[in-house]
Amino acid sequence: MEHIRYEVDGKIATITLDRPQVANAQNAALLDELDQAWTQAATNEDVVVIVLRGEGKHFSAGHDLSDRWPSPREISLEWIYQNEARRYLEYTLRWRNVPKPSIAAVQGRCIAGGLMLCWPCDLIVAAEDALFSDPVAMMGIGGVEYHGHTWELGARKAKEILFTGRPVTAAEAEQAGMVNRVVPRDRLDAEVAELAGRIAAMPPFGLRQAKRAVNQTLDVQGFYAAIQSVFDVHQTGHGNALSVTGYPILAKLDEMKAKLE
């Protein structure tokens, strides 16, 4: 794989986003490789726990729009819908439901599509420097592809980060219940390894059933239906943007990237 590293050490599989030169921004190839890695870990009977991490300063700057989009004149809502339904909605729901515990290790920036990678994981360990944000409203798009915001942060905090675009700190995320623990940056990998090892020592069937119980409880409360319906709301945002010359979401790309420097 070109953009992902996949390693297995005993009962733990580690998937590493490996595009640090662009803050692990997600192009189509990275997402396809990531799905392959998740599948490998899910089908390897020796693997009990899956760890997702990002190489370099940032976990993920979100979607690599320069890779993902054709020129504005070639974009159609049908193209956007089909592309996002596959790589964003289907992939993330599949990762969420892998019948093995998963842990995301997050450092630096985790922007928009970066949330789409860590939220399907069962646990999140964040470095003290982690910042979580979703500035979609500034691009004229209200809904998102994988709307975990309300479930992860609660309704009012979800509205705050969407309305303002401001980052949520690791400490705020822990207080809201989105993050399990916050650790010093230089201890992130060690703390995640310790947690993964502790979980890996548990009976795999018990872990699988515990995960299933929690996920099914969320689904009964409406999680799955909400994810599906908000995905369609998100597509109306694209439709609105298509009606504006130059497609504003693309114009914001350089501005957003500059803030990571």
**Helix and strand pattern:** EEHEHHEEHEEHHEHEHHHHH
Number of domains: 1
Binned strand content = 5-15%
The H-level CATH homologous superfamily, spelled out, is: 2-enoyl-CoA Hydratase, Chain A, domain 1
Strand ordering within the main sheet: 1-2-3-4-6-9
The coarse overall form would be: globular
Please give the largest β-sheet: 6 strands, mixed
Q: What's the end-to-end separation, in Å? A: 27 Å
**Which blocks of ≥5 consecutive residues have pLDDT under 50?**
none
Structural category? alpha/beta
CATH architecture: Alpha-Beta Complex
Describe this structure in words.
The chain has one domain (4-258): Alpha-Beta Complex (2-enoyl-CoA Hydratase, Chain A, domain 1), CATH 3.90.226. It starts with a strand and ends with a helix. Helices cover 49% and strands 15% of the residues. By secondary structure, the protein is α/β, with parallel strands linked by helices. Pfam families: ECH_1.
Task: Briefly say what this structure is.
By secondary structure, this protein is of the alpha/beta class. It has helices spanning 28-43, 65-68, 77-96, 113-118, 149-153, 155-164, 170-176, 188-200, 204-220, 223-242, 248-251, 253-258; strands spanning 4-9, 12-17, 49-54, 102-106, 109-111, 123-127, 131-133, 168-169, 181-183. The chain has one domain (4-258): Alpha-Beta Complex (2-enoyl-CoA Hydratase, Chain A, domain 1).
